[in-house]
């Protein structure tokens, strides 16, 4: 599991690519659900299988943090154990966190677009 980030200075957005290895679940239908879509499971970001992974992407505004989880077969929730951070919830589980803050110390390690 991992999250890939591509920052775009022109649009002030970050394209986030979520990766979940197919061997991490027995499910066949996986979505990314989070506060960026109001935790709406029906409108979660569908993940497609490519090269042995479930993959999904979305664009998020930069300089923010977003909580998310993977919803598998509309019944099982899974965290991304390579997330940027974790946030404890009132339900006794942690949500995964993706951070889209652009910091000068890490800019050389991330992909940028300038179109």
Short recap of the structure:
With 115 residues, this protein is mainly β. Strands 3, 4, 7, 8, 9 and 10 form a six-stranded antiparallel β-sheet that branches. Helix content is 0%, strand content 51%.
Structure, explained:
0% of the residues lie in helices and 51% in strands. It has a single domain (2-113), classed as Immunoglobulin-like (Sandwich). It has 115 residues and is an all-beta fold. The protein starts with a strand and ends with a strand. Residues 104-109 have low confidence and may be disordered. A hairpin with a 3-residue loop joins strand 7 and strand 8 (76-78). It is globular and about 40 Å long. Strands 3, 4, 7, 8, 9 and 10 form a six-stranded antiparallel beta sheet that branches. The protein has no helices and eleven strands.
């Amino acid at each position: 599991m991992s999250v890939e980030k591509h920052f775009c200075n022109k649009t002030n957005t970050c394209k986030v690519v979520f990766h979940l290895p197919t061997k991490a679940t027995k499910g066949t239908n996986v979505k990314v659900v989070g506060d960026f879509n109001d935790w709406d499971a029906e409108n979660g970001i569908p993940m497609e299988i490519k090269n042995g992974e479930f993959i999904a992407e979305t664009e998020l505004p930069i300089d923010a943090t977003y909580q998310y989880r993977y919803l598998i077969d509309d019944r099982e929730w899974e965290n991304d154990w390579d997330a940027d951070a974790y946030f404890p919830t009132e339900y006794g589980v942690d949500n995964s966190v993706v951070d889209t803050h652009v910091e000068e110390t890490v800019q050389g390690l991330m992909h940028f677009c300038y179109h």
